[in-house]
């Protein structure tokens, strides 16, 4: 596993092996890089409807068509191929939830509603599960600390933690179904349960210590309608399956589980996970994050919707996914191959996984 080659050619030399996590936390800010990141991308901040809408709609359409093929096909090979295609398409469509957590609420009129109707609610993952949560991951004083909902020092944990982290994603579709069909309705009549479910099971977070604050105002009203839609859909799925057969639902659960595992693998390499809770500089956060730039083409499958530029996204969280490639080209040309900027560029999924595994193997001694 440690020697597994990348499926993609290296676009930049690999960064050095895991080192002193504390030194990364205390990395001083590279002011030239931060200034260039702002100045060179001033014209790239607009979320373009002509890109967002066709991309999201096509991904959802392919996902549903391929899912129908997986359910209806009598040929096992064709059914499996359709299931994999459906998982990849739905995975891309679902990851627009990341963009929704960043774009201004007045941008792309109707996009949030349509995405929730076509993708978020059918996948039992409405946008409220990321909106209001993901921005905390970008907060200057929260990143990499105990208050970051999307951070764990995985590189400093035991080797067994990685397969456990990856395989728990298989349970996600069933957990979401139980949440929407059982826990949410019960929470209406049992307020303490409602508060518990909201605090502990209403966010796409990986930090088990994270507790979500109660929603307020317009956001609370949005949560109400999204949860109602998800609960009605969950009841429909169970009722239909109970009367017409469970095969379609089980295939759907398998498709979503495959996408969830792929996303969990992507999460494993989105950062270096080397911070032990210290507050980090912006440059330290950048160097603890990962870009996997071209020419590798498989990256668009496992890190779609701009997530191949995750480190750059931490520098410029307001730049939409479709502009990150251009931003990367400009910054690379301006700052050069010996700059701090290129130190967050890596060759592909497997070298990054290998680095993470090697780091956890160093944690074998001790309790």
From TrEMBL:
Every Fatty acid desaturase domain range: 81-338
One BP annotation, GO: lipid biosynthetic process
Cross-referenced InterPro entries: FA_desaturase_dom, Fatty_acid_desaturase
GO molecular function, one term: oxidoreductase activity, acting on paired donors, with oxidation of a pair of donors resulting in the reduction of molecular oxygen to two molecules of water
Parts of the chain that traverse the membrane: 50-72, 78-98, 110-130, 164-190
A Pfam family it matches: FA_desaturase
Stretches assigned to coiled coil: none
Top-level lineage group: Bacteria
Region spans: Disordered: 1-22
GO cellular component: membrane
Name used for this protein in its record: Fatty acid desaturase domain-containing protein
